[in-house]
Amino acid sequence: MKHYSMRSHLTITFAIMAMIPILILGSFQVSQITHITQESNQNQRQTTYRLGDAIQDYMYYHRNAVETLAATISASDAAFRTRESLTLKLQSLQENLAGFTGIYVVDQNGIIKATHTAANASLIGADVKERDYTKRVQAAQKTVISSLFRGPESLNQSAVAIAVPIYKGNKQADGFVLAVLELAPIKELVTKYDYGKEAYPVVLDHAGKPIYHPNAALTESMADLSKEPVAEDARVQRQGEGTYQLSTSTHKELITYKAIPEIDWIVWVSKSKAAVNAAFIESLRITILLLVFTLILTVLLGSFLAKRLNGTIHALVGYTQRLAGGTFAKPDSKVVPQGSPLELQLLADHFFRMAEQIKENQGALLQLNSELENRVEERTQRLQDEHATLNAVLESMSDAVVLIDVKHNVVYANHRMAEIFAIPMSELGAMNEAALFERIALLLPERQDELQMLTAEPRVQGAFTVKSEQGKERFMMVSAFQVAREGRVFGRGYVWRDMTKEHEIDALKNDLISLASHEFKTPITSIRGGVETLLRVDAQWEESFKQELLEGIHEDIGRIQDLIDEWLDISKIESGAMRINPQPLRLEAVVESAKRRLPQQANYEHTQFEVHLADDMPLVYADKLRMEQVLVNLFTNAVRYNEQHPIIRITAEADERYVHLEVQDNGIGISAEQVDKIFDRFYRVDVSSSRQTGGTGLGLAICKGIMQAHGGEIRVLSKPGEGSTFILSIPSFQGKES
């Protein structure tokens, strides 16, 4: 009975041991299929969002081009609004930007009065006042994008149109520019993405008509899909996903959707729900069948093996129990039953001999173990203390330290070494000396030969300029030394000291001296010349000439005072002594006050301001004079760094904590490598240009300090030749003064 119980136990054990890896494999496979399904859904979401962004960008470029054309027409005099002149402007847009089937100028009465080509001359005089886009643009007096329509102005094809109002000189409405977009480029844009098996995209306009649908008949018939549940959800939730039953499909579909608020369109990507679940169900079925088959096979094999092994194992277990009780009696020759496998018999013989050796060595091992434990514990504690002390010293150093053994492998490096050279600690510890210096050499554009000299001599020093992956330079001083004791060399060590701060201080000192000598020299020379002229006793000057000289002297003194004020401000910012007196302010009043404070070269006569601030914009909580100082600096830079008629556009939006004021100009712009540096002290985008226009390089650094003192921030978006947009995040007034 006991043998039978052990055999059953062995059979069950084999079955369980076999089931465990199968269950793990099955669970892993189900997890993988689930992960693949989730990843597929994630890819579908990302494709939907990319599709929405691509359509938004496409419509933005075309809308921006039409708005530019409308602004050009609005800015022209009546003499330049003849049909011929308008036709030339429309042709220019048609030639420079593809995708338009027709471009027209419509008067205030809804009558087409100019087209881009003589081929459409028959449409001149056509009445479009009943069109949806005409009613909307006349009512809103802003750019609108029409819903899907068909008519002569679209060559009787399904199309959408961009309508932009135009004005007379007195800002009165004078009709609008109508640009009809063909759907073929939009279709090409939509279908270029890989949506996966059994998936397709859909694009709806603001009225729910399909701009693109794989069923072309829906687009041709301009079907109304606005009542589809996915379209209704997109209007409310903007973006998301869900399972829907569409009127155009016979089965449920998994749909990811996104609304494009700028043009009030909706995009979605749909995939059959059955296709999504098919792979998961099939994998689960195969896993279950494999599990059942393996379980049956394992039970049969385990039962067979248990039957053969049961007797011998039972005998060995009994002898083992006696050994555990301290009985080292010589085993009986009948311990291993007849008929047992040869391997088990050999195992039993070795087991018995091992028991004899255990008996002999047990006493000696106990004594040695006790002595060894004491010695190991003492030595381990000493090494731990020494290692902890040494590691604490090296890790607390501000210098980078690396130690190399005699086999030229890295045996130690502190975290400062990994930080300076951007090498992960795990990778750094596995490097050899040559690989380490090759990695460092990648950051040294020059003087790599001198770097190799560090490994050639016992003690040597060198200075290098290290350039990080972000392009930032660090000035490093390195010392190489031998690690030796009592005449035995254990390896080499290198200590890298970061001298960047000291180098920057020297550079700033030189910049300050150069800047002071240049910026003060010009006004002081002018003042001296004016005073010497007035002091001449051998000449009689007219009062108007004296007044002119005195005004020039006054202006130069003001320039010197401005320089001193800037240096005082930057000193306060650096020392943390910048003080502000915040109060609730209307943003529009601050902007208007800043415009009045502009210097002569940036006043109303030379600069066009476009201020678009909503009437319900919340109050900001800021220091009025300091905020005006920031805006005056941004306005002055917009004029100073501009090669055309300066246009400054001011807009704002608010969230729960801040009012984000955007100051956009049409200046020369800033390159990507300079954007991160323009808020540094004494930094100027173009030295030659700065010398021609003046400037200390402190203005934007002061602006940054003022915004930080308010608890806000300033940042910039810019591209060369496309102007710059400075964004001021100003704390909004929360209803009570702090």
Automatic annotation (TrEMBL):
Residues 355-389 form a coiled coil. It is found in: Cell membrane. It is a multi-pass membrane protein. Residues 515-734 form the Histidine kinase domain. InterPro entries: BphY/WalK/GraS-like (IPR050351), dCache_1 (IPR033479), HATPase_C_sf (IPR036890), HATPase_dom (IPR003594), His_kinase_dom (IPR005467), HisK_dim/P_dom (IPR003661), HisK_dim/P_sf (IPR036097), PAS (IPR000014). The chain crosses the membrane at residues 12-30, 286-306. Its EC number is 2.7.13.3. The keyword Kinase applies. SMART domains: HATPase_c, HisKA, PAS. It is an enzyme of class 2 (transferase). It holds the Pfam family dCache_1. This is histidine kinase. The lineage of its organism: Bacteria, Bacillati, Bacillota, Bacilli, Bacillales.
